[in-house]
Amino acid sequence: MKKLSARRRHPLAAIVVLLLALACTGGLYAVFAPADKAQADETAQSLAIDEGKKLYAVGCASCHGTGGEGTTDGPSLVGVGAAAVDFQVGTGRMPAQQPGAQVQKKKNIYSQAEIDQLAAYIASLGAGPSIPTEEKYRDEGADIAKGGDLFRTNCAQCHNFTGKGGALTHGKFAPSLEGVSAKHIYEAMQTGPQNMPSFPDTTLTEQNKKDIIAYLNAVNGDETVDPGGLSLGGLGPVSEGLFGWIFGLGSLIAVAVWVAARTAKAKKS
């Protein structure tokens, strides 16, 4: 008893007891709480993959293969990532209605929950871009002017200066970006659907993508008005000037020719 009492009075006794208590508490938490949460998350993910596989077998396997390996009618989906699924299925482009030069946007036939399940299954086939969080594509902290510069440098060649869209070769086209959700624009830049090149974070950073989306929201928003009436594709003075040269100057030349012809006829008379 005297030895035990002496140990209790030791200067380090309180520290040893505190360390033991912390170790026990941390150990119990590590054993029970995280394990339960991780197991629940793993179970939910596994269930989503299983449900997604069923949806895939019905709506996608005929073109993309039973395991996503691709066929002559559809490319491989291994490594395309969840973002590609969320974009293609969320915009109604997939499942494709019919083959053609370009699959067009149409009414979506899946709920968001089903899209998430399909995305979970495709993501399980190989690593790829994940579905972006709202923080990545909302306007907060975006630079609209910088977004305009980036859009004109990387996107305007196909989508027009304000995202009105434009024609490409062999029946393909760059669709209009008016009314497209910010999430789908972000995912398109991530994954490069159909004829569009992809712009990974090494090419356009997350901030760059946010800036571009903010620019498109600014030029295509509800409050955007064309004071001159017809926007002519948003090209500005270039298209208006071309219109003036072709039709204005052409009309003046036609009038001059008509006056000269009338004058020559009058002299002969």
UniProtKB/TrEMBL annotation:
Reactions this protein catalyses: a quinol + 2 Fe(III)-[cytochrome c](out) = a quinone + 2 Fe(II)-[cytochrome c](out) + 2 H(+)(out)
Subcellular location field: Cell membrane
Ranges of residues in domain Cytochrome c: 47-126, 142-220
Keyword Transmembrane helix applies: yes
Listed Pfam families: Cytochrom_C, Cytochrome_CBB3
Entry-linked Gene3D superfamilies: Cytochrome c-like domain
PROSITE patterns noted in UniProt: CYTC, PROKAR_LIPOPROTEIN
Entry keyword Iron: yes
Keyword entries, A-Z: Cell membrane, Electron transport, Heme, Iron, Membrane, Metal-binding, Repeat, Respiratory chain, Translocase, Transmembrane, Transmembrane helix, Transport
Membrane topology, from the record: Multi-pass membrane protein
SUPFAM superfamilies reported in the protein's UniProt record: Cytochrome c (SSF46626)
EC assignment: 7.1.1.8
Domain of life where this protein originates: Bacteria
Listed transmembrane segments: 242-261
Primary localisation category: membrane
Quaternary context: The cytochrome bc1 complex is composed of a cytochrome b (QcrB), the Rieske iron-sulfur protein (QcrA) and a diheme cytochrome c (QcrC) subunit.
Name of this protein: Cytochrome bc1 complex cytochrome c subunit
Organism: Streptomyces daghestanicus
